[in-house]
Design a protein that fits this description.
elongated; mainly beta
């Protein structure tokens, strides 16, 4: 399916407005980076890399109430729990590790390499993650890095009063999986 057709498809009025906008933005970003017109922005595909896949995630960031360095209780990130979507269909899940597991049997585990600018207020940060482990094969087998972009929500706010208490905060993001380009 062409990028133009995918872009039009995400504008389908039967999809919720937020999802249509998120899909349109993600496809626009990928189209710009493929066309080489994006200038040094966090969503720009790094030189020497190409996009393997882009998935939209809907889920929650889980926080736990713990003692901070100052001895007071504060919300501390524990793990993500999200469904990975492509074209409105579930293709996998995202969970602690951080890990991305696709229905084709492939699983990747990553490590945060860099926090990127671009996240809005009350949104978890945009990230670049390096792949540190892979299991199975599947379509992400060649991926070596992941961009987390277009984030919405996911930030724990307010005080916590009971150590061990958990809080789930809804979030959405796009995950762009990257692989080194073959040398010509």
């Amino acid at each position: 399916m062409s990028r133009t057709r995918r872009y039009r498809r995400c504008l389908n009025p039967s999809l919720p407005t937020v999802r249509r906008l998120a899909l349109a933005a993600a496809l626009h970003v990928v189209a710009l980076t493929h066309a080489g017109t994006a200038e040094a922005q966090p969503t720009t595909v790094p030189a020497g890399f190409s996009v393997v896949a882009t998935f939209h995630a809907e889920g929650a960031q889980i926080y736990q109430c713990r003692s901070g360095a100052d001895g007071g209780l504060a919300w501390q990130f524990r793990e993500p729990v999200a469904t990975l979507l492509e074209g409105g269909r579930t293709v996998g899940r995202h969970y602690a590790g951080p890990s991305w597991e696709l229905s084709d049997g492939g699983t990747l585990v990553g490590r945060v390499a860099e926090q990127l600018s671009g996240a809005g207020a009350n949104a978890i940060p945009w990230l670049r993650l390096d792949i540190t482990e892979r299991r199975g094969g599947g379509r992400l087998e060649q991926a070596t890095a992941v961009l987390r972009i277009n984030t919405a929500g996911g930030v724990a706010e307010g005080a916590c009063s009971t150590a061990g208490e958990l809080r789930s905060v809804a979030y959405a993001a796009d995950y762009v999986f990257l692989a080194p380009q073959a040398r010509r």
